[in-house]
Amino acid sequence: MGNKAVILGTNYYIGLSIIRTLGYEGVETIAVDYQDEELYGSKSKYLGSHVMAPDFKKDKEGYLDKLIEIAKAEEEKPVLFPSADPYAEFVDENLEELRKYYLIPMEEQGLWTKVMKKESLNEMASAHGLNVPETIMPQEENLYERVEEELGYPCIVKPTDSPSFVAVFRRKIFHCNNKKELEEALGKAQAENLEVFVQRIIPGFDDHMYTFDYYVDRNGKVTHWMTCRKLRQFPINFGASVYTEQIHVPELGEIGIPFVERIGYRGFGEIEFKKDAKTGKFYIIEINTRTTSLNELLYKAGINFTYVAYRDMVGDPLKPMAVEKSTGYVFQYLFEDILAIRDYVKKGQLSLGSVIKSLFRKKVPAVWSFDDPAPGLNYLSILLGKVKKKIFR
């Protein structure tokens, strides 16, 4: 197979995990970045070449032209892997043009963006019988009375477009304990022209958050899947995975497989669910359309999802597989897990003893690898540089 893989973004461990998991199988990789800083993923021994491109946020045409130029230089169409939500949105926006030069699993332009946006995802999920958290739009009449009566406090304000919201506020949601905080949160979003909605908080601690990770092949069938459970997040309660275990939950497959097949999804995806601590029902929270932060965990637990996608795209698919057991592996993003532990213990949500006990697991590090140490060492040097700046500031 002469097709290379092009990975968008190496300044975060997701891009690094794509490079590594493809490299383990001998796939030649090309990484593309638009900013020349903190690119620790580009230090991997598994990376074939590294290319700089214009900033796609400021020069979309220039970035698109660069991607086309990269593909044209290859004898075979490369397989394209976005490593972050903004990259996935860019690919989706330019899907028709990019498919002329790249192998991309998604066929329906706009579907990736549609499932990433919370409002449209909730509509799709409800139409297919999935549980979604009760939601009220800010423009609806009697907003504050309805929030108090139907949702209750605390509640959350969530964006319809998560990447844009996170880029501005550096957080995924606003947590509101009362009417005043809700008014302030809606005011901040309105000032930035960001669409948001108010949503009920599904009861349950952070370990009630689950993921259903899957791959839908070019024929529209889920061929590979497994499930995981978050144990710790950062920021705590409403953040990203920093300590997550692979655990088999058959019900998530029963819910997720029919849904993603019916909506015409293609490629890798990850549905986040929350289990209601009172009723035991699973509620859909969001769908990640790019490679997940848990990619190395999924690989260790038995499925190399990036290689599954690669083989499907080049016309030589792997045999279907589901991990129908709990392997005991735990993903850890050490730096943010330390920060999360500090906050959980400080707020009395976890005891130090329970945290220490949880650490004696088969861990899959987000960044470090004895087989490929350069990215981890470079990442450490970046962290030390930030600490030094903070001290001397």
Residues in β-strands, percent: 15-25%
The description of the largest β-sheet is:
8 strands, mixed
Average of per-residue pLDDT values: 95
Class by SSE composition: alpha/beta
Task: Give unreliable regions as ranges.
Answer: none
Strand tally: 16
Q: Which fold name fills CATH's third level, the topology of the largest domain?
A: D-amino Acid Aminotransferase, Chain A, domain 1
The helix count comes to 15
Distance between the termini: 52 Å
Q: What Rg is obtained from the alpha carbons, in whole angstroms?
A: 21 Å
So what's the CATH class of the largest domain? Alpha Beta
Based on the coordinates given, report the CATH architecture of the largest domain.
2-Layer Sandwich
Helix content: 25-40%
Task: List the defining traits of the structure above.
Dna Ligase, domain 1; 38% helix; eight-stranded mixed beta sheet; Rossmann fold; 3 domains; 15 helices; D-amino Acid Aminotransferase, Chain A, domain 1; 393 residues; globular; alpha/beta; four-stranded parallel beta sheet
